[in-house]
Amino acid sequence: MSATSHNNQSEEYALLGATQGIGKQLLMLLLVRGVKVRVLARNPSSLLELSSHPLLTIIKGDATNEQDVETLICCNSNTSSKLKGVFCALGTRANTPTTVVEDGTVNAIQAMKKLNDPIHFVLITSVALTDSKEHPWFYRNVVKKYLLNHIYDDLRNAEHKLVTLCEHSHITYTIVRPPRLVDSCLTLHYGYAKGNDILKGGKGVMSRADVAAFMLQCMFDKENSSLLRTNQAFNMDTTKAVPKEHDTVGLMTFLSWTLPRHQYIMIRMGVHSVQVGALAVLAYYLFPGQTRGWWKAITESVSRFVGRGSSGHRV
């Protein structure tokens, strides 16, 4: 065994939210790197294809349960391994009142405080938590305030609790804030801004694989001192277009996951109305004569139908 692999396997990392999305991408990258990983999963069968990996320990439990998270973080699967870092990739799709990310973050930090060694925590939230005026008007005033407000409230509360609980402790942290996420290939074409700024020239969309790769950098990249500087937040974005053929989740599909059904149907009807109206205007300018004829025929048919219905009602 090489010295590098020996050092890697003397360290261990914990991961919350490993069963899907960014968390699953991150888990595979950690295993490829050759470090020991322990994950908490409500349904361990969702990681069945990786369950036999010699570097992976799967613990059945819930991130919102304080005791389960303490078991994950404080109980070494191997006494020769030392927990060096914790990743939190928790999230939810439904835009309903929730505290999943906040609870998972608080439980993790409280458990980490019981360890005496320095330890680093990497949390994923969203670039929507910035107040940058460079976000589109619709995104700032509709999506953030009404369509995804509960999801963002949970992420915002998680960040606040993280900063508060880590103050004057041996725990350091990095917050990763990506834009809209898609299932795409690893590109490594990304950048970041800090504070309340967003990356200029960014595409506003990022693959989950790239977010996972950046989270890995925040834990391991010793050559980039700006990434390892403690207690900071990075607002992520891609610098080149994400391959569209891999974007399997469009905006309407995403909204169907997150919104109550009646709200989704209303938005869908509104979108279709706008599309039909736009096509009607385009047809009028391209074929004015035919369009006027079609419109006249439609209005006459409607008038006859309404008149027939009114006559029947009077009788």
From TrEMBL:
InterPro entries tied to this protein:
NAD(P)-bd_dom, NAD(P)-bd_dom_sf
**Residue ranges occupied by any NAD(P)-binding domain in the UniProt entry:** 17-221
The cross-references to SUPFAM superfamilies, in alphabetical order and at most eight, read: NAD(P)-binding Rossmann-fold domains
UniProt-listed Pfam families: NAD_binding_10 (PF13460)
Q: Which protein is depicted?
A: NAD(P)-binding domain-containing protein
What is the scientific name of the source organism? Answer: Naegleria fowleri
Which lineage? Eukaryota, Discoba, Heterolobosea, Tetramitia, Eutetramitia
